[in-house]
Design goal:
Elements lengths: L3 H38 L4 H5 L13 H7 L2 H33 L6 H13 L4 H10 L8 H4 L5 H14 L2 H9 L4 H9 L4 H17 L2 H6 L8 H23 L1 H47 L1
Helix pairs in contact: 3-14, 4-8, 4-11, 4-13, 8-11, 8-14, 11-14, 13-14
Length: about 300
């Protein structure tokens, strides 16, 4: 039976929930649709895409773009290199960032204020492209896969997030209790701090992983050998090559042939986006729980 008084009493809360739900669903659709569009456009007729006829489902389905991408042997070399750079680079980043953040979080470290200021300065000032290139060359990392792993070992933003987490989420009483039992800083960090820091480790691990996966500018500057090129450079070369071929075909064979070549160039363009994005999207669900917790802790206590 309808209870008018109860309904009127709960109406403000109900209205709030309705508004929040509508806003949340709308925001989700605004974020989701561009991704969905790229997916359906990657195997749709590019002419129909450019005419705005591909909106909710693919039309003129063709896998030509993907076939052109995956038939090239260098794509697999690029995948292998990127996986290696991302895996070992992220491990190296964590190996450097976590201990540095722990040391800077210790209130009994007298120089932590000065050291932290030196780190922060690097967020606003750097040596520039040419001096950095000369440094990479002088230390012997030019055209070496190690440059993709070692270069940029510490991201100061990630360092600040981790340090803040250690300061606000790891009670000092834990160290005092451990120190009474003769526990050193090294053992305390490895056996107490790290197990309690899964959330922030997941956050910065994802940040570093995505950074390594998407990094193409470092490879563009410091790698010359094709065998060392990461996936992003390989995909970029495929995209530029097909666009150049489309332009050449259009100039030499007329507008009709140019439009035909451009159609496949557009398919390859959307296919490149999918090929470079899907692996990272597959990793995210496995660390989503820790990632969300870590982000919220940083937002509330940072």
């Amino acid at each position: 039976m309808f209870n008018r008084k109860k309904f009127l009493r709960n109406w403000p809360d109900l209205s709030f929930r309705i508004v929040v739900t509508v806003i949340t669903v709308s925001a989700f659709l605004f974020v989701l649709y561009p991704i969905y569009f790229v997916v359906i456009a990657s195997f749709s007729d590019s002419t129909l895409v450019n005419q705005g006829q591909v909106i909710l489902y693919p039309k003129g389905v063709s896998l030509y773009g993907y076939s052109q991408i995956f038939k090239k042997p260098e794509i697999w070399v690029g995948y292998k290199n990127t996986i290696i750079y991302s895996f070992f680079g992220t491990i190296f980043n964590l190996t450097v960032t976590l201990p540095a953040a722990y040391v800077l979080s210790r209130k009994d470290f007298a120089a932590r204020g000065i050291v932290m200021k030196l780190f922060v300065i690097t967020m606003y000032f750097n040596g520039g492209m040419i001096p950095t290139y000369m440094l990479i060359k002088d230390v012997g990392l030019l055209d070496s896969p190690l440059v993709m792993i070692i270069f940029g070992a510490v991201n100061v933003y990630n360092l600040i997030i981790t340090r803040t987490f250690f300061e606000t989420s790891i009670p000092d009483e834990l160290y005092e209790a451990a120190a009474l039992d003769g526990c050193s800083h090294f053992r305390y960090f490895s056996t107490v701090v790290l197990p309690l820091s899964k959330a922030v480790i997941a956050v910065i691990m994802l940040y570093y992983l995505v950074g390594h996966w998407n990094d193409f500018f470092s490879a563009l500057l410091y790698l010359n050998s094709d065998k060392y090129q990461p996936l992003q450079i390989v995909l970029r070369n495929i995209l530029l090559l097909n666009q150049a071929m489309a332009g050449t075909t259009g100039a030499s064979a007329g507008a009709g042939a140019g439009a035909y070549a451009q159609q496949f160039a557009d398919q390859i363009k959307f296919g490149v986006i999918i090929v470079s994005t899907v692996p990272v999207l597959c990793v995210y669900p496995f660390i989503q729980k820790y990632f969300e917790k870590g982000v919220m802790i940083g937002a509330v206590k940072g």
